[in-house]
Design goal:
This protein is α/β, with parallel strands linked by helices. It has one domain: TIM Barrel, CATH 3.20.20. Helix content is 45%, strand content 11%. Strands 1, 2, 3, 8 and 9 form a five-stranded parallel sheet that branches. Strands 4-5-7-6 form a four-stranded mixed sheet.
Length: 306
């Protein structure tokens, strides 16, 4: 692949008066670090799955529990999608990050056990996939603590990573995560490479995300609940994702793929994901990994630089 040129214009440092804020400096540092990946790698792809199952529907409206067909649509994720995706990852010896709401862990303990037995990372994703829009600090702490309790009680897991349900974090989310001794968050959109969250003295590493690399917008549909009736062809989805990955790789960043087992675990979509993984693995300087490995590398590199 051609030598990367880092596009620092993607991380503007102009605060409007010619000065640079600490937060802007962090984004500039992220840009400067982009491309400095382990070994000969010059970019990264993180494979992540949100195991929402029923929680994403019930958080918005608990009465949906009586809608058997809708619940079966969500059950496909843990019952069929997760095993299929675990087998796919096993075929290539890859690790991924699975963000698991506490309620999913309680209802599908065997699924959580299978994820861990496969050597994968489990991250925090709320308790019942609760939206933080309008939530006060007490509610946000409650969602964090209930999720932590469920993952610990069911599988003895203390997650190091967090993803806000619906990617709707608050201004206090990352400081709260620091207080609960998380290592990283993956809910913000303001960079192309990892950076230290400025509001908590760098204790939390942010691994940024992008809606263009989420399968929900491509595949999710249920009449009257989500989607507009259009469901994209899997081959078109992975073609678009590959374009995104190539562009992010070209500037030395990280592409965080965000998938849901009830969506990407369907046969044609999993087959298309396999094709995409093979493209990534055939690119010699592209690191395909889980988020915890990215954060370990990032922290170790920062410590070495001192």
């Amino acid at each position: 692949m051609a030598t990367k040129s880092r596009d620092t214009s993607l991380f503007p440092g102009d605060a409007g008066d010619g000065t640079e804020s600490p937060a802007q400096a962090d984004r500039q540092a992220s840009s400067a670090d982009a491309g400095a990946w382990p070994g000969a790698n010059t970019g990264a792809v993180a494979l992540t799955f949100d195991v929402d199952a029923r929680s994403v529907m019930l958080a918005a409206d608990p009465s949906r529990a009586s809608r058997a067909s809708l619940m079966s649509h969500q059950d496909y994720g843990p019952l069929v999608g997760v095993p299929r995706l675990l087998a796919l990852l096993r075929d290539y010896g890859l690790r991924a990050t699975f963000f698991v709401p506490g309620a999913t862990a309680e209802h599908y303990p065997a699924v959580l056990a299978a994820i861990l037995e496969g050597g994968h990372e489990v991250g925090h994703h709320g308790y019942l996939h609760e939206s933080l829009v309008g939530a006060d600090e007490r509610a946000e702490r409650d969602y964090l603590e209930r999720g932590l309790d469920a993952l610990d009680r069911i599988a003895g897991v203390r997650p190091s990573g967090y993803r806000a349900p619906w990617w709707e974090a608050t201004a206090r989310t990352r400081p709260l995560l620091a207080g609960y001794e998380f290592a990283y968050d993956s809910s913000f959109f303001d960079a192309d490479a990892p950076y230290p969250a400025p509001e908590c003295s760098g204790q939390i590493v942010e691994v940024p995300v992008c809606w263009a690399l989420d399968d929900w917008e491509r595949y999710a549909f249920w009449p009257g609940i989500t989607g507009d009736g259009r469901i994209d062809r899997p081959s078109a989805v992975v073609a678009a994702w590959w374009e995104e990955i190539q562009a992010i790789h070209a500037i030395g960043g990280i592409a965080v793929l965000t998938m849901h087992p009830f969506l990407s675990g369907r046969p044609a979509r999993a087959a298309a994901l396999r094709d995409l993984i093979e493209r990534c693995l055939a690119t010699p300087d592209l690191w395909v990994t889980a988020l915890d490995e990215v954060v370990h590398w990032y922290r170790d590199g920062k410590l070495r630089k001192g």
